[in-house]
Structure formats: structure tokens, C-alpha cells
Specification:
This protein has a single domain, classed as Alpha-Beta Complex (2-enoyl-CoA Hydratase, Chain A, domain 1), CATH 3.90.226. The longest helix is centred in the N-terminal third of the chain and has 19 residues. 47% of the residues lie in helices and 12% in strands. It has 16 helices and ten strands. The strands form two sheets. Strands 1-2-3-5-7-10 form a six-stranded mixed sheet, sandwiched between helices. The chain is α/β, with parallel strands linked by helices. The protein starts with a strand and ends with a helix. The site of 3,5,7,3',4'-pentahydroxyflavone (QUE) has 17 residues, from helix 15.
């Protein structure tokens, strides 16, 4: 049994993510299978373009196999945890440096690891059904999959906003902030996919899909509130915005997250702004190995994904009580 399907026709290699019961969350076998086929296709002259799609109506890919990682971490199986993240990030790096066009069609949820196998590609097509987020701080983890490279390169404050709040954005918004490259209405996506599969040049396929619908991403507010590196200052600014409903919603989202994760997230995004992609992945691997050993990670995954009770009790419970030395140890002094 395999959770990806592959096919080749007319110069196009297609990978269909097919683990619908887990919203296509990437388990170790999917990562290994995707890496092998992409490595092979990269050198195959019969393949000009790679297309990645989902066999699920609801999701492109919900993330990593976080429940399995939690089990390994709780059992002290640190090698399995390291192996998982190093192979996931190696796959993302292969996609980031892919020698031919890599096209992801995102017509449902794409979160965490799902962004790792789409955003690093050259072409990211989204629809109005795309739901995009980096929600890891709520499970005692942090935005990884190379996002510490691409988040700080989005418009002012957007990366910090998405990383700290886990806010969900839709397809048109993803194009507006630069996470996606093309918007296609969901009803037209099957036609676009078929034209891509028949080898129609990308410029031709997307010629009539140049303008995404307008959005109401509050870019001005995002820049104002999230345009700094200090989590306490960001939350202080949001709390001080009396009468601003949007700011209050963002405070609620942030309060749902692990305080330690919030500090780690902000520090990783800040550091990533001045690092190349490889350095970001190295830093993320170190941080992922460290943070998965914490009680907050076991507790956050329990509350959100295992029991689904959403009642995580993080320790410390307040941002101001997080020990900077703990954060420094997680991100690694480099
Ligand atoms: C943060 C995450 C993930 C998440 C929720 C978060 C994640 C992930 C899933 C997920 C969702 C549904 C499934 C599944 C996994 O949710 O990485 O198997 O059926 O994979 O707040 O990082």
C-alpha cells in the first residue's frame, strides 16, 4: 500500500497525494517515495515538468505525521524523530532546487509540511478552496519546512503574523502575499490540470489566469502590529489596540499557542531573515530535534491532534515567564 500515486505522460510526471483519511499528512513512506521519484525525474530527459496534486477533496496536505513524531518523541526514540525531519527537509530542499518546473495544485488545506512540498516549488496554483496556514505554535512546535526562510521574505510583518497566530488565509490572499503564484477558480482547476497533463506550456495554460480576486488581507495592520521581532512588544501592541476587533482576534489566536513556541517562532523567523535556505533548514532541524523533546510538544499534539480536546496546558503558561536560555538552547547558538 502506498500513499502516493505516480504517472508519466506527454513529458509530465504527476504525483498524486493519496492518504485522504489523514488529509494527506506526510508520513515517512510518503516522504521517502516522493524523494525517490522526484530525484529520478530530475535526471529523466523524458520529463519536462512535475505536477503535484491531491486525491482528496478536502486537503492538499495537512502537514507532517505529527502524531507519529509525538509517539517516537515520548518513547525517547530520538533517531526516528531526527530521521523524519531530516528526510522531510531534504525533500523540501530538492523541490526548492528542482531542475525543472515543479507545479503544485492546491485546492484545499495546505498547512505546515503541506507548504513545504508546495511553496518551495516554482509554480503554486491555488483556488478559493485553498486554506493555508502555519499552525505549529499551537501544538508546541514552530513553523519549519523552510518557512523560516520564506516567511521573513513576505511583505512587512506577514511572516511573523502567520507564524505567531497560525492564521488561515485563502487562495487569493496567498497570491497577494506571495506564497502562491497563480489563482484559478476551483471549478476551472480540472481543466487547467488536464492542459498541464497534456504538456501545454505553462505560460499558455496560465495566460487567462493572471488576476486573482481582490482580498481584504489587512496588510497595513499586519505591518504595524507584526513588523517587529519581539513577541512581548507584538502582543502588547495588539492588546493596546482597544476597539480593534481584528487585533483582539489575533490576541486570542496567540494565547492559544505555547508561549515557548511563540518565542522560538519569532527568534527563528528573525534569524532566517539573514540566512540562506540551507542554513535555515539546518537551524530548523536542530530546533525540531530539541523542541520535540519538550513537554509542550507532547501536550500540544495531545490536545490538538490526539484527544482533539483543545485544552493544552503549556508550561510556562505566560510569555513573560519563558526563560530566554531555554529558547536559545532550542534554536541553537549559531
Ligand atoms: C499544527 C500542525 C499540524 C496539524 C495541526 C496543527 C500538522 C498536521 C495535522 C493533521 C491534521 C489532520 C490529520 C492529520 C494531521 O494538523 O502538522 O493526520 O488527519 O499534520 O495545529 O503542524
Amino acid at each position: 500500500m502506498s500513499f502516493i500515486r505516480t504517472s508519466v505522460a506527454d513529458g509530465v510526471g504527476e504525483i498524486v497525494l493519496d492518504r485522504p483519511k489523514a488529509l494527506n499528512a506526510l508520513d515517512q513512506t510518503m516522504i521517502d517515495d516522493m524523494y525517490s521519484v522526484l530525484a529520478e525525474w530530475g535526471d529523466d530527459d523524458a520529463i519536462d515538468t512535475v505536477l503535484v496534486t491531491s486525491g482528496s477533496e478536502r486537503a492538499f496536505c495537512a502537514g507532517g505525521d505529527i502524531r507519529a513524531i509525538r509517539e517516537h518523541a515520548v518513547a525517547g526514540e530520538v533517531e526516528a524523530v531526527s530521521h523524519y525531519f531530516s528526510s522531510e527537509y531534504r525533500l523540501d530542499q530538492l523541490i526548492a532546487n528542482y531542475p525543472k518546473p515543479y507545479v503544485a495544485l492546491v485546492d484545499g488545506a495546505a498547512m505546515g509540511g503541506g507548504l513545504g512540498i508546495s511553496v518551495h516549488g516554482e509554480v503554486r496554483v491555488v483556488t478559493e478552496k485553498a486554506v493555508i496556514a502555519m499552525p505549529e505554535a499551537a501544538i508546541g512546535f514552530f513553523p519549519d519546512i523552510g518557512s523560516t526562510y520564506f516567511l521573513p521574505r513576505l511583505p512587512a510583518g506577514v511572516g511573523m503574523w502567520l507564524g505567531l497566530t497560525g492564521a488561515r488565509i485563502r487562495g487569493a490572499e496567498a497570491v497577494e502575499v506571495g506564497l502562491a503564484t497563480h489563482f484559478v477558480p476551483s471549478a476551472q482547476l480540472p481543466g487547467v490540470a488536464d492542459r498541464l497533463r497534456s504538456g501545454t506550456p505553462l505560460v499558455e495554460v496560465f495566460a487567462e489566469h493572471r488576476d486573482p480576486p481582490s482580498t481584504d488581507v489587512p496588510l497595513r495592520k499586519v505591518g504595524e502590529y507584526f513588523g517587529e521581532d519581539n513577541v512581548t512588544a507584538i502582543v502588547g501592541g495588539l492588546r493596546g489596540a482597544v476597539g480593534d476587533e481584528w487585533a483582539a482576534e489575533m490576541v486570542d489566536l496567540i494565547e492559544n499557542a505555547s508561549p515557548t513556541s511563540l518565542w522560538v517562532t519569532a527568534a527563528m523567523i528573525t534569524a532566517g531573515a539573514r540566512s540562506g535556505l540551507d542554513e535555515c533548514f539546518d537551524r530548523e532541524l536542530h530546533a525540531a530535534e530539541q523542541i520535540t523533546r519538550t513537554d509542550d510538544f507532547a501536550e500540544g499534539v495531545r490536545a490538538v491532534l490526539v484527544d482533539k480536546s483543545r485544552d493544552a496546558r503549556f508550561e510556562p503558561a505566560n510569555l513573560d515567564d519563558v526563560d530566554p536560555a531555554v529558547v536559545a538552547r532550542i534554536i541553537g547558538a549559531r
